């Protein structure tokens, strides 16, 4: 496999990258790496996903006008086997959010890992300590959490287990900077910082649906508050299956404040997975398949099938709330969790949580993060 061009500034000795999982995140992470001159070898257990790697990567890079530059970037991607990936300096696992599937993969990597291969997981929610216990070289293992959409989210969470070596953490931090991302080292807990902030926000949107607040109002309220996407669009963009798997992990950890909404369960049953399946809360148009990695692509109308599911699960008479009230309820769910994250010492300073929300979740910069916003709201 090619090594990173030595003329390119490199802050660490990570030279070549292996990615396991060529789904939404694996592909976006691959694009970020080739944009920054890192050669990437990618593997997926589903051959269908590998067949489309090049066309999807090309879509991810479609903003690059200079054809020569784009071709150079495209030449940095290679498809490989797990054994071949074992030769990479850094392997990023981005497979399905299920503990047992990740554990099985880690065991199958055992014969192929070099003593100095760093192995990271992009898990959104599963505690790193738990994953580290089933990884053959725990000192070399850490959480390295990119956020969706990778090209537009500056934050990367770095999560050590009790066994991760200091050298590995330093190299990961340097690597994040060389990708023009801001690394934030956070303590291990289900959901870390960003998904602990995000899940209550999404959960609140699902609760609002159940008391009869229309989808359109929820989305409008979030945009009026200053978010770039409403919570229903976020779920469609992430993928309802991933939201559900992550929600289960957080529900087990924090059952008193995370609900497994029947709306999500029914949407899953109907295979309404969001953008990646062409329909979720929104309808994504007939050409969704060719546009899964098109940054400019916009959703169409709200999905009437989901409107029906929501009606079936509605509790009581529909409540009428103003856009400001809806926006405040959504943001307060996030701010309350931010307070708990602070109390649990997941990060060392309050400012880091606000920063994570702004550069990780596009919380409006003008409101300076959920904790700062809540402090102003409650002092009125
Ligand atoms: P995805 O469903 O789009 O892709 C997962 C890929 O993994 C699929 O292509 C599947 O074929 C492959 N796969 C499954 N089992 C495998 C195995 N044993 N070996 C190799 N490949 C296997 O999922 P997505 O959204 O890319 O998520 C991947 C990881 O990233 C998850 O841990 C998720 O929690 C995390 N994540 C997801 C975000 C999102 O917005 N979707 C954001 C940040 C993290």
Please tell me about this protein's structure.
It is a single chain. With 380 residues, the protein is α/β, with parallel strands linked by helices. It contains 17 helices and 8 strands. The chain has helices at residues 24-35, 47-51, 53-60, 67-74, 82-85, 99-109, 128-132, 166-178, 194-210, 215-225, 231-238, 240-253, 262-269, 304-312, 323-343, 350-361, 370-378, and strands at 17-20, 40-43, 77-79, 90-93, 118-121, 141-146, 155-160, 182-185. The chain has an 8-stranded mixed β-sheet with strand order 3-2-1-4-5-6-7-8. Strand 6 (141-146) and strand 7 (155-160) form a beta hairpin. Helix 9 runs antiparallel to helix 15 (323-343) and helix 10 (215-225) packs across helix 15. The protein is globular. The chain starts with 16 loop residues before the first strand and ends with a helix. The site of 1,4-dihydronicotinamide adenine dinucleotide has 26 residues, from helix 1, helix 6 and helix 12.
């Amino acid at each position: 496999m090619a090594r990173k061009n030595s003329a390119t500034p490199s802050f660490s000795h990570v030279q070549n990258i292996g990615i396991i999982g060529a789904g939404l995140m694996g592909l976006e992470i691959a694009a970020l790496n080739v944009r920054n001159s890192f050669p990437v070898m990618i593997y997926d257990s589903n051959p269908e996903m590998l067949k489309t790697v090049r066309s999807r990567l090309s879509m991810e890079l479609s903003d690059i006008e200079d054809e020569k530059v784009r071709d150079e970037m495209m030449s940095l991607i290679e498809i490989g086997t797990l054994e071949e990936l074992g030769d990479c300096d850094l392997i990023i696992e981005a497979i399905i959010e299920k503990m047992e599937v990740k554990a099985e993969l880690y065991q199958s990597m055992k014969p192929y890992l070099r003593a100095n291969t760093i192995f990271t997981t992009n898990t959104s929610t599963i505690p790193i300590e738990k994953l580290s216990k089933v990884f053959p070289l725990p000192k070399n293992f850490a959480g390295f959490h990119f956020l969706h959409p990778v090209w537009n989210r500056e934050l990367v969470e770095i999560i050590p287990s009790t066994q991760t070596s200091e050298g590995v953490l330093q190299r990961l931090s340097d690597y994040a900077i060389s990708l023009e991302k801001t690394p934030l080292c956070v303590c291990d807990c289900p959901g870390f910082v960003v998904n602990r902030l995000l899940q209550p926000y999404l959960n609140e949107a699902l609760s609002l649906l159940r008391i009869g607040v229309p989808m359109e109002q929820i989305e409008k309220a979030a945009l009026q508050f200053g978010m770039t996407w409403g919570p229903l669009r976020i779920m469609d963009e992430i993928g309802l299956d991933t939201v559900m798997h992550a929600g289960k992990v957080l529900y087990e950890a924090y059952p008193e404040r995370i609900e497994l909404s029947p709306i999500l369960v029914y949407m899953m049953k109907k295979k309404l997975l969001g953008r990646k399946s062409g329909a979720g809360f929104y309808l994504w148009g007939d050409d969704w398949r060719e546009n899964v990695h098109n940054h400019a692509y916009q959703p169409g109308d709200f999905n009437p099938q989901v409107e029906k599911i929501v009606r079936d699960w509605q509790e009581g008479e529909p409540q009428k709330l103003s856009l400001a009230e809806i926006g405040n309820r959504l943001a307060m769910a996030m701010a309350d969790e931010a307070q708990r994250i602070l109390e649990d010492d997941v990060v060392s300073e309050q400012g880091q949580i606000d920063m994570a929300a702004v550069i990780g979740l596009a919380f409006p910069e003008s409101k300076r993060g959920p904790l700062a916003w809540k402090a102003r709201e409650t002092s009125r």
